[in-house]
Amino acid sequence: MPIRSPEASQRLAGRIAGFTLLLLIASGLYRVGIVCEIVMFNCDIVLALALYALLKPVNETLALLGAFWRVANAIVLAAGVAAILTALHTVSGASGLSVFSSDQLAALMNILLNVHSNASRMGLLFFSLGAGMHSYLLLQSRYIPRILSGAYLVVAILLLGFDFGWLIVPQFARRLEAPVVVPDLVVELAVASWLAFKGVRIGSSESGPVKG
Q: What is the pTM of this model?
């Protein structure tokens, strides 16, 4: 079995990161069911490993920290999915729930739905921390055009600020959701497409050709 060079492994990790990020974005946009959410947080785990493999030569400690934040996002999202599954179990009239009144069951459903919503928000906090760290390392590495990695870092910081704003003043933060989320989506699509289809530059200047 041929031995893959470190540079080839990094390029492969970059392409895996790009395609996984595209799938992650798609599953987050069209979250039509629990399966899409499961796909989404599993993509985050694969993306965390791929970006760690790609960015480890730049700064192993920071790359690992970014990966941990993305995995934390996946864990929190999984807890939210568990709450939704419990809510569905409640609606289906599972055995043992007959002791609750209809009002009590409705209150329980509302609590579980709120757990899911809050888990998504908390997951987004870890997601933006991981995205910020990885975009910073991409900017340092020049593996992709700096205008892309720089824009990625900016939108990650904006998303992080929005997350904290939601925790502190939820009513005010809701007004900023579209102005923050839309640019983040556009930039992430651009970065993902570049990683997936153009590949990363390894051992070349920004003006040099893309290898891979």
A: 0.78
